[in-house]
Amino acid sequence: MKTYWRTNLKYLFILLLIWFLVSFGAGILFRETLDTVKIGGFKLGFWFAQQGSIYVFVILIFVYIRLMNTLDKKYGFDDDESVKKELE
Description:
By secondary structure, the protein is mainly alpha-helical. The protein contains 4 helices and 2 strands, in the order ααββαα. Strands 1-2 form a two-stranded antiparallel sheet.
C-alpha cells in the first residue's frame, strides 16, 4: 500500500511539473523566444499562455487516468469490492 501511494505521488509530481513548465515556462519565461514562431497568425508564446497550457492540462488529465488505471490493476484495486474492503 505504501508503494502504491509513493508511485501515485510520483506521477502527480511529474505531471504537475510538466504542467508548470508548459504554463509558466512557455507562457511567461520563454515567451520572447517562442514569439519568434507564429501559429495561425498568433505568436507561439501568446498561444501557450492563452490556450496551450489548457490543452496540455487536459491531455495530462487523460495521461493521469491511464497511469492510475494501470497502477490500480498492478496493485489489485481495479475491482470495486477490493477498494471497499481496503477502505474498511
